# Entry
Amino acid sequence: MNFEEKTLSRQEIFKGHIFTVAVDEVELPNGLGQAQRELVFHKGAVATLAITPDGKLLLVKQYRKAIERVSLEIPAGKLEVGEAGSEEAAALRELEEETGYTTDKLELLYDFYSAIGFCNERIRLYLAENLIKVENPREQDADETIELIEMTLEEAKTAIQSGDICDAKTIMGIQYYELMRGDRHGQAFTNR
# Structure
């Protein structure tokens, strides 16, 4: 069976700094007619599951206008101009800007799309261990107000249950941490 929808035309509705919105007229597969698809094209993003030497997760607390509330999230951000293909460097930049830490050990965990029904945002999720405090870290983005929070795995799981952590990439990172942690009685994360 053929699943591909052929694009007949595209109308760009909005072009911003972070994403572009378009409406595509498509031909449905197998002669089923035509349809419209409202799409968001995103430049991509990075996120980092940062683990302190004592096994705590570094999260940032910030207000998210799209959901009109405060959110707890792993350090993350969009790719800046020229960073496509340099996602690891972008993850290190975001980690330093948002937490004041860097690492010499960054590992790609997942490469995934956030909302494939309408958006092509691709997020690369990294694991950062061996955190190193940066003496003079990069400044946070001027339009961000964030607070750095350290949480144990149990505290993070409680925050997911309460809805304080509602961000998918953060939940994914925390679930990875729990799965890979091994012994639930305090075995170090690095003993995988």
